[in-house]
Design goal:
The complex is a heterodimer of chains A (512) and B (133).
Chain A: H1 18-30, H2 32-50, H3 56-63, H4 72-97, H5 108-117, H6 121-154, H7 159-176, H8 181-196, E1 198-199, E2 206-207, H9 221-239, H10 259-281, H11 286-301, H12 314-337, H13 343-354, H14 363-366, H15 368-397, H16 404-423, H17 426-444, H18 450-472, H19 479-482, H20 484-511
Antiparallel strand pairs in A: 1-2
Helix pairs in contact in A: 1-15, 2-4, 2-15, 3-4, 3-9, 3-13, 3-16, 4-5, 4-6, 4-12, 4-13, 4-15, 5-6, 5-12, 6-10, 6-12, 6-15, 7-8, 7-18, 7-20, 8-18, 9-16, 9-17, 10-11, 10-12, 11-12, 13-18, 16-17
Chain B: H1 18-39, H2 42-46, H3 55-78, H4 80-94, H5 100-121, H6 129-132
Classes of the chains: A mainly alpha (512), B mainly alpha (133).
Chain lengths: 512, 133
């Protein structure tokens, strides 16, 4: 297809509309290795969605090293597949075992498990798979329409705008994640400190390396993510290990919801889809928040709210749809601005950088095969997931029949080898284990770990843009607040910091 | 703290130390705030912090951490094959698999399969150690 685009110039995205781009993207995504990568990605995504103890972030960290041999497009298609694929898998165990395989499926346990106990497990599974598909597709359409104009606007952004955007992104993430604001900010600081280790970006001076030559390269994303999310989670499970969970069995013919159930489930799917996409745009753990919001919305507008908690199909359809379109929404800032706002898209950015691709608003015009390839692969991947999940749901769920010690042992081995394979470095393994211990302790103390990952990835960008801004303005720090876009962004950040304690305070006041 | 030893530069040409210094100030301020809150006992109450496990539960977590560290230390001298089998065995035993026969069998089989997969299929240059060198 390269003859269509003789020179990858910046003028390209201006005169091509999305349909042409999409057609081009399908050409990319259907090409041999990419189609296979997409299938592998969504398969692994479903698998880790089903398995408690390892989620999409750990799995992406695990597979980044194995994408070294692939091109950046193929790598990104596979890693993105894990991200949205895990949203399908997570619902399975929520419904069948009352154990969410994934943080974004916690809400599904409320009504999904109740439906299963009433013998409607099949219907719940089918509705969540179809809802995921409908909303996922809806989300991709929106992604396709929103991202290119946003990138156009972002072309005018200079270092001060990027600095403000990154800073506000971190503020939003740490404030909207729930939990203590002080603790979340501390985690941002922890991540930023980690990102400062290594060679300083402008003069090449080594910082905080303690004389270790290897640390001059900086702290790698993979061992940190895998330690915090993989090993940390295994240690948590090890603490309160209980035998094999009791699973509700599903027969294949039970998979079809009744007409009545379809009718009740369809509007929540659309509502969840729209809501999820817009929540995905907001910096924060988008997929998780969107499920809670969708559930609350469905309960509020339902004509029979008393059924919620006792197996209301809307309570499954809404959240399960929302978390899928949220993943598409979260891709917008990553692909249009080059700034990830959620830990999972931070992993994708990490992968882009490892593959030597410069993320940012020029990505779409300079590397159209990456943008449109990913978009098209998401359509294909969602279709694959629908096919994969409906008939094979029993197969995936039966993984839970394996003894849990064995599963956890395998996850540990995968984390260790995956980390080692990035640089063949023992130091990385020590970082992995240290981060695992840290992850365990921080989790127990209710620290939110998402800001660490995001700050580690965004840290270098934050420092670079700050120093560039200061350089451009000849040392005048006011450049950061006087430009209209930066002023607006910073005001939003400030508003979030101020409003949250106020809201909590007034809530406490009313309760008294 | 180390950031103080790095050059600060001037405002228009900020040096390597400025950014870490800013982050450090930010961290210190937050730590002080959190310390005050937890001394008042507010934090543990409002955030529903989980108590750390005790007795057997604590032992399980600590020993698993030790097993991981041991694996890292022994990886070079003993090699991946032996290391992974020992780690797997330790994990299974710690997490409550009762039969020793099963544990030994599963450990050896999973070590062999994963070694083959990583070294020959995925080309990870794992340390071979004393067994295969």
């Amino acid at each position: 297809m390269s003859w269509m685009f003789p020179s990858p110039g910046a003028s390209f995205s201006l005169d091509m509309d999305s349909l042409q781009g999409l057609a081009y993207g399908f050409g990319v995504a259907l090409g041999g290795a990419n189609l296979l990568a997409c299938l592998l990605g969504v398969f692994v995504g479903t698998l880790v969605g089903v398995l408690p103890g390892i989620g999409p972030i750990g799995a992406m960290a695990l597979l980044i090293p194995s994408t070294f041999a692939l091109g950046p497009t193929t790598a990104l298609i596979m890693l993105a597949g894990i991200y949205y694929g895990s949203m399908y898998g997570g619902s399975t165990t929520s419904i069948l075992v009352n154990v969410p395989g994934e943080a974004a499926s916690v809400v599904t346990t409320i009504d999904g498990y109740q439906m299963a106990r009433k013998g409607r497990a099949g219907a719940a599974l089918a509705v969540s798979a179809v809802g995921s598909f409908v909303a996922g597709t809806l989300g991709i359409v929106a992604l396709m329409l929103f991202a290119p104009p946003l990138a156009q606007v972002a072309l005018k952004f200079g270092p001060p705008e990027y600095f403000a955007l990154t800073l506000v992104g971190l503020i939003f993430l740490s404030q909207l994640g729930g939990g203590s604001a002080v603790k979340s900010f501390l985690m941002v600081g922890f991540g930023l400190m980690l990102s400062a280790v290594g060679m300083e970006p402008i003069s090449g001076l080594p910082r905080f390396t303690f004389g270790q030559l290897q640390l001059a390269q900086g702290v790698e994303l993979v061992p940190v993510a895998m330690g915090l999310y993989g090993i940390g989670e295994v240690l948590i499970i090890a603490e309160r290990i209980t035998g094999i969970p009791q699973m509700i069995r599903v027969k294949f013919r039970e998979l079809f919801p009744t007409t009545e159930e379809w009718k009740r489930a369809f509007p929540p799917m659309i509502r969840g889809g729209v809501l999820g996409f817009f929540m995905g745009l907001i910096p924060g753990p988008a997929a998780i928040l969107s499920t809670f919001t969708a559930y609350a919305l469905e309960k509020r507008i339902s004509r029979h709210p008393e059924e919620f908690g006792r197996g209301a199909i809307e309570g499954v359809a809404g959240p399960e749809s929302a978390n899928n379109s949220a993943t598409a929404g979260a891709m917008v800032p990553l692909l249009a601005l080059g700034v990830p706002f959620a830990p999972a898209t931070a992993m994708l950015l990490g992968a882009l950088i490892i593959h030597g691709v410069q993320p940012g608003p020029l990505l779409m015009s300079q590397k159209p095969e990456i943008f449109w390839g990913i978009v098209a692969s998401m359509y294909i991947g969602n279709l694959m997931l629908l096919i994969l999940n409906l008939p094979l749901v029993g197969v995936f769920a039966s993984i839970l029949n394996l003894p849990q010690p064995l599963l956890l042992g395998l996850i540990l081995l995968l984390c260790l080898v995956g980390t080692f394979s990035v640089n063949n470095s023992l130091l990385d393994i020590y970082i992995l284990i240290g981060m695992g211990g840290a992850g365990y302790i921080l989790r127990k103390l209710r620290f939110d770990l998402a800001p660490v990952i995001l700050a580690l990835v965004l840290g270098p960008m934050l420092e670079k843009t700050l120093r560039q801004s200061l350089f451009l303005a000849r040392g005048d720090i006011r450049v950061i607040v006087t430009r209209p876009i930066t002023a607006f962004l910073l005001l939003m950040g400030l508003a979030v910091i101020i409003l949250r304690p106020l809201l909590q305070w007034s809530k406490r006041f009313r309760e008294k | 703290m180390g950031s103080l030893h790095l050059p600060m530069g001037s405002a228009d040409r900020p040096g390597a130390g400025v950014y870490p210094f800013l982050v450090a100030i930010f961290l210190i301020a937050l730590s002080v705030r959190l310390l005050i809150r937890s001394l008042k006992g507010k934090e543990a109450q409002e955030e529903r912090e989980e108590p750390f496990p005790q007795g057997k539960d604590l032992r399980r977590v600590v020993f698993l951490g030790l097993a991981l560290t041991l694996f890292a230390i022994l990886l070079r001298p003993l090699g991946y094959g032996i290391g992974s089998a020992v780690l797997m065995g330790a994990t299974l035993r710690l997490l409550g698999m009762p039969s020793w026969k099963k544990i030994i069998l599963i450990s050896i089989v999973s070590a062999a399969i994963s070694y083959y997969l990583f070294v020959y299929v995925l080309d990870v240059p794992l340390p071979r150690g004393i067994l295969f060198s």
